[in-house]
Amino acid sequence: MNGRELFTAIYAGDIPDRLPIQGLWPWADTVARWQMEGLEFGKDPHEVLGLVNDDILEIPLDLNMLPTFSVSILDEDERYITLVDEYGITKKMLLGDFNATHGYMKVAGVTSAMSLWIDFPVKDIESWKKILYERFQPQISKRFPLDWSVQQTDFIEKSKSRWITFSCFPLFGFFGPLRQLMGSEYLLFAMAGDNPSLIDTIINDLTDFWLDIFNQILNDVRLDEVVFFEDMASTQAPLIGPGMFRRFLSPGIKKIVGGLREMGVQQFFIDSDGDIRRLIPDFLASGITGILPIQVSANMDIGNLRKEYPTLNLNGGIDKRALAQGPDAINDELARWFGVAWKTGRCIPRIDHGAPSDISWSNIQHFAKRYLDWCTIKPSEEQLRSCFREV
Fold first, then answer.
1. Phi, psi of 62 (to 5 degrees)
2. To the nearest whole percent, how much of the chain has pLDDT over 70?
3. Backbone torsion region of residue 201, taken as left when φ is above 0, otherwise alpha when ψ lies between -120 and 50, otherwise beta
4. Cβ distance 307 to 282 under 8 Å?
5. pLDDT band, residue 388 (cuts 50/70/90)
6. Sequence ranges of the domains in the chain
């Protein structure tokens, strides 16, 4: 199967002839450790480990603020820097993390620690409308790479055999972008009754902006899947309850899902760490078809999720903690995960977040070898029964 056929089959609940290979998204500290333990400097660990594929293609569209704010340093000492980042957020971060990112939120995945968030750009309707009119306008030519007119022909040709996806960190989604713009505390109090009209306005404005953009581009290119960045839960529970989700987020999700379905988009994923189980029924009722990355340490288990939600597409759920424990733990974890995936379908194999620095180079090499075996060699019924006996 090519990539387009593969993902279509998986999301239809069929059992394909292989499973797609996914990346590791290692932290900067993780790559530094691997380089000390054997990874050649300058080499992409995915290429060295064989974790590459040509199954997926992502539309190179930027739906974040345009123009962004200028990153400006407010204060610094020998350990910390306080700054305003490209999205107008005032934050304090480690000097080493600033050196790795130059303060940009969009590359936050390479940092070693979370920043301390201090202030946010949206305070009220007026500050939101100013940002909307200045930074969220649908200028298509500015939101694609400068050479998109050249790239587009090649993109369309490749899309014939690949699954086409879209995500945009951190301002494509509903709860996630609102938290970026307002801060968690102000957002939650606004939802709880302090300023519900502000929440409704931002969601309506962003949804209209996105639909305008997609209306302009999806006559020329195909899009199969979108991923909404949300991060709306801790390891114990969601940050909002089902009632608040239905009141504020569901209408916007239904609107964009409905609009994008008419344009040919098939799959709609929520990207959130933490325990989001209480919200899954409302995800499904709003038109969401899948979730990722399925954080195992937050009681998210693909076997239990599959039993409760037979049609929910599951992307992730391989416990990254097992990768730090050694070959036996890795073997058991992969047998557990792939036992479900090959038995039930609708599962995409990836670890449940980026690879942290407690994973050694030797462990990730072992993981990659066994992972590739599981992805590319369809197990027999006896082997699957063995997986369930052993784990």
1. -105, 110
2. 98
3. alpha
4. no
5. low
6. 21-54+310-391, 57-64+122-293, 70-120
Q: List the structure tokens of 317.
A: 């759920």
DSSP assignment of 202-249: HHHHHHHHHHHHHHHHTTTS---EEEEE---B-SSSBSS-HHHIIIII
Structure tokens at 13: 């609940």
Phi/psi at 313 (nearest 5 deg)?
A: -80, 135
24-44: per-residue pLDDT in tens? 999 888 999 999 999 999 999
Domain 57-64+122-293 classification at class level: alpha beta
DSSP 266: -
Please report how the helices 250-262 and 196-217 are oriented relative to each other, as an axis angle in degrees rounded to 10: 10
Q: How far is CA 66 from CA 53, 131, 134, 331, in A?
A: 31, 10, 8, 46
Indicate whether 128 pLDDT > 60: yes
The helix (H) or strand (E) run that includes residue 28 is: helix 28-37
Would you call 29 exposed, middle or buried from its count of C-beta atoms within 10 A (0-12, 13-18, 19+)? middle
Give the C-alpha distances (Å, rounded to integers) separating 136 from 65, 145, 157, 212. Answer: 6, 17, 30, 11
Q: Which residues contact 282 (CB under 8 A, 6 or more apart)?
A: 242, 245, 246, 250
Backbone angles phi, psi at 119, to 5 degrees: -150, 160
Q: Which two tokens stand for residue 85?
A: 């980042």
Q: Which two tokens stand for residue 170?
A: 């951190």
Looking at 17-31, 166-180, 370-384, which range is the least confident one?
370-384
- Cross-strand pairs, 315: 348
For residue 260, give both structure tokens.
């994008």
2-7: long-range contacts (C-beta < 8 A, 24 or more apart)? 2/55, 2/161, 2/162, 3/53, 3/54, 3/55, 3/56, 3/57, 3/161, 3/162, 3/163, 4/159, 4/160, 4/161, 4/162, 4/163, 4/224, 6/55, 6/163, 7/55, 7/56, 7/163, 7/224, 7/225
Distance in angstroms (rounded) separating the CA atoms of residues 323 and 6: 27
DSSP 144-162: S-TTHHHHHHHHHHHTTTS
Indicate the SS3 state at residue 165.
Answer: strand
pTM over 0.90: yes
